[in-house]
Amino acid sequence: NAGVTQTPKFRVLKTGQSMTLLCAQDMNHEYMYWYRQDPGMGLRLIHYSVGEGTTAKGEVPDGYNVSRLKKQNFLLGLESAAPSQTSVYFCASSGRGRKNGELFFGEGSRLTVL
Amino acid sequence: KQEVTQIPAALSVPEGENLVLNCSFTDSAIYNLQWFRQDPGKGLTSLLLIQSSQREQTSGRLNASLDKSSGRSTLYIAASQPGDSATYLCAVERSNTGKLIFGQGTTLQVKP
């Protein structure tokens, strides 16, 4: 059981380049999230989704886009990367069953923008 | 706006000591509160989840309490071990919105 899988795990970009981070979960969870984690700032919510075909903005959505075309996948896109987007990105998912919202995280994707 | 604060930012204790980590939040209209553990370079692992109607949850040597009226939660770790060394984060979900707001964490070091 893989849980939450993020790809790629590491990436270096030049300013202005674009890329997509892929998150896949095999737990049939409704809710999926993208967070970024920065020293001194903690974990901040970028975008989230409460079901297939839906997305919503979190605390820091600017410069990012997301899509949830399939229930098991949640994609995070950077159209024109900036050095301020250097961070560790975490995907998470949760169901709405017995444990009502327990969050499961991926291992993280470390992105450096030069 | 919900704000979550964890104090202290870092804590160092000798092995075997019982300890308490604190989490406070500004908006009491929460759906649940979760405690997580994060090891260096790794993702977060859920430790305990407390629903808004509950007062505490226990798992092994861990006990988490929730007092919504005062906007506080504590994570109690009994008989600490070096393997407990990690960063502990709390997060609150507001009113079943699916949005979790995290504190900045407490980094715990348990010395042998």
Describe this protein's structure.
The complex is a heterodimer of chains A (114) and B (112). Chain A has 114 residues and is mostly beta strands. Chain A is 0% helix and 51% strand. Chain A has no helices and eleven strands. In chain A, the strands form two sheets. In chain A, strands 2, 4, 5, 6, 9, 10 and 11 form a seven-stranded mixed beta sheet that branches. Chain A is globular and about 40 Å long. The N and C termini of chain A lie far apart (36 Å). The relative contact order of chain A is 0.32. The mean pLDDT of chain A is 92. Chain B is mainly β. Chain B has no helices and eleven strands. In chain B, the strands form two sheets. In chain B, strands 2, 4, 5, 9, 10 and 11 form a six-stranded mixed beta sheet that branches. In chain B, strands 1-3-8-7-6 form a five-stranded antiparallel beta sheet, with no helix packed on it. Chain B is globular. The mean pLDDT of chain B is 93. At the A-B interface, strand 4, strand 5, strand 9 and strand 10 of A face strand 4, strand 5, strand 9 and strand 10 of B.
Would you report the number of β strands of chain A?
11
Q: What proportion of the residues of chain A is helical, as a percent range?
A: under 10%
Number of helices of chain A: 0
The interface involving the most residues is between:
A-B, 27 and 24 residues
Overall spatial form of chain A: globular
| Low-confidence sequence ranges of chain B | none
Order of helices and strands of chain A: EEEEEEEEEEE
The major pleated sheet of chain B works out as: 6 strands, mixed
Mean pLDDT of chain A: 92
Q: Which blocks of ≥5 consecutive residues of chain A have pLDDT under 50? A: none
